[in-house]
Amino acid sequence: MQALLKNEDKEIVLSSALSLHCGTIEFMSFSSLAVFCGSKAGTDPLYTEHAKQLGHLLSQKNIILIYGGGGKGLMGTVADAVMEGGGKVIGVIPEILLEWEAQHKGITELHVVPDMHVRKRKMYELCDAAVILPGGNGTLDEMFEMLTWNTLNIHDKKIFLLNTNGFYNHLIAHLHHMYKENFLYESPDHRIAVINSPEEIF
Fold first, then answer.
1. How many C-beta neighbours within 10 Å does residue 109 have?
2. In a domain, 3, yes or no
């Protein structure tokens, strides 16, 4: 898909990513972090490496991991890394996904909830901030719902987008396009901090 982009389109994607990276979100300390990511590992080994790095950092800094409760893909990787470091992991998984995402059986706490809506609400309640790692439809659903709630001032929790190897470049460009076409009430720069490595969260 990227090979079909014209040179000027590539420049727009890159400039949008850089712009959002330099957004106005203030970085702060927190005691719990929600991580939204894929139940698959993806093709780039750096996705898994960044998930491990994030997990190790959370355990080192004594920050509680709040995540979707799965034991596969990037979800399992970040949870394993936190547990390996002696940290605390709280998983929240809906009944329908117990088999699909293979709930993690080695974490500190696992909350089984009735459905996806309750899962997202519970994760929002438990976290002080959130970071989005590479993922699929579910990850984007969680990100956009949290972003919408943030925009509507239902909460003011910080949202970090981990743009591993440019994974979210096109999404970042589209957010800026929505703002340019007057479909957003404010620039996405005010609501999302784009980072290129887990260390930048802290």
1. 13
2. no
pLDDT confidence tier of residue 20, bands split at 50, 70 and 90: low
Number of domains into which the chain is organized: 1
Neighbours of 113 (CB within 10 A): 18
Asked, for residue 21, whether it belongs to a domain, the answer is no
Q: What domain range includes position 147?
A: 29-201
In a domain, 115, yes or no: yes
Residue 187: inside a domain, yes or no? Answer: yes
Q: How is residue 34 written in tokens?
A: 């929600």
CATH of the domain at 61: 3.40.50.450
Q: What is the pLDDT of residues 143-196, one digit of tens each?
A: 999 999 888 888 889 999 999 999 999 999 999 999 999 999 999 999 999 999
* Spatial separation of the C-alpha atoms in residues 151 and 106, rounded to whole Å: 36
Token representation of residue 28: 């702060």
Q: For the chain, how are helix, strand and coil distributed in percent, rounded to 5?
A: 50, 15, 35
What percentage of the chain has pLDDT greater than the value 90? Answer: 77
> At 25, is the pLDDT very low, low, confident or very high (cuts 50, 70, 90)?
very low
Q: Decide if 51 contacts 145 (C-beta within 8 A).
A: no
